[in-house]
Amino acid sequence: MSFASTPVTRTLVLGLVGSSIAASLFDIKHYFYISIGTHILQYRQTWRVLIWQLCYTNSSEVLFAAMTLYNLRVVEQQWGSRKYASFILVSGLLTSIIPPLVLTATLRPLSWGVFDFLPAGPTPIIFAILAQYHAMIPHIYKYKVALSTGAPTDNAADSGLTFSDKSTKYLMALQLALFQWPGSVLGAAVGWMVGQAWRSELLPGALTRWRVPAWLVGMRSPKSSERFEGMRRRLESEGASTGAASGAQQQPGGEGNRRRTMGQQLLDEVRGAF
After folding, report:
1. What is the 3-state secondary structure (H, E, C) of 116-144?
2. Which terms are listed as keywords in the entry (predicted)?
3. pLDDT score, position 205
């Protein structure tokens, strides 16, 4: 029931957990992370760019990612499954290409080959969703955590940290970004920027306006909806005409169109039920 009206989120969580377990069972986790010097520059394994976000390589990241996606399901509830799925696919494509490109062209040369590793997992996609959550969902309440246990003073209001009900979501995502830094931090930063660019309409209009087919998220197509709506209207009109015709029938014994008594109506209802 927790995933009610969020089929895309349910598919993401189950797919992420299933793919991560499968990668461990079949011992293929080494195919998903990217080492720029070895995989891209030396062996030209550019296909890794398309699959490195399909799963995580350790159980801690899987747990935090599943909880974060679950907590961010409210974005799908606000947008609808079709727009949400379109956003996931577009941001997934952009965040799959941009981090390896930035790492290869900029960060690796500037760090003399030290910054070379990009860990597996959809952390960039999660941070792109988190950017939408940050902009769309207001906080409900705030609370303060005191930094000391002494007696309260005049400036007690300034001696603590203020959090909101959204802080736990941000902390889980932050933990996810720090698991395998600096590579995971790069992915998180790129994902956040892609999410903000989508929201600010800085991306090409074709990307922000594109939508997945309705049937892909279990929605009926417009033609199908019109067909069912026309059928419903026909049934309603036929029911109304049948009711009008039965009400206009003459009662037996030559009574004409005289209105029936309450007892006769109840008797007719009982007869119809049996």
Report:
1. CEECCCCHHHHHHHHHHHHHHCCCCCEEE
2. Membrane, Transmembrane, Transmembrane helix
3. 86
CA–CA gap between residue 253 and residue 250 (Å, rounded): 9
Least confident residue range of 6-20, 97-111, 246-260: 246-260
**Of the ranges 72-86, 158-172, 247-261, which one carries the lowest mean pLDDT score?**
247-261
pLDDT of residue 217: 87
Question: What torsion, rounded to 10 degrees, do the Cα atoms 34, 35, 39, 42 define?
Answer: 160
CB 155 within 8 A of CB 71: no
Say whether pLDDT at 65 is over 90.
yes
* pLDDT value of position 257: 43
CA distance 249 to 262: 17
Evaluate if residue 30 carries a pLDDT over 50: yes
Q: How confident is the model at residue 199 (pLDDT cuts 50, 70, 90)?
A: very high
Phi, psi torsion values for 146, nearest 5 degrees: -70, 145
Q: Using CA atoms, how far apart are residues 270 and 265, in angstroms rounded to an integer?
A: 9
Q: How many CA atoms lie within 13 A of 238 on its CB side?
A: 6
In this structure, are strands 34-35 and 160-164 parallel, antiparallel, or unpaired? unpaired
- Take residue 27 and report the two structure tokens written for it: 């011992």
Tokens coding 35:
């080492």
As a whole number of angstroms, the distance between CA 64 and CA 176 comes to 6
CA distances from 136 to 77, 86, 166, 199, 212 (A): 12, 18, 12, 10, 22
| Cα–Cα distances in angstroms (integers) from residue 135 to residues 70, 75, 82, 92, 121, in the given order | 18, 10, 20, 19, 24
115 within 8 A of 179, measured Cβ to Cβ = no
- 65, HSE (Cβ side, Cα atoms, 13 Å): 32
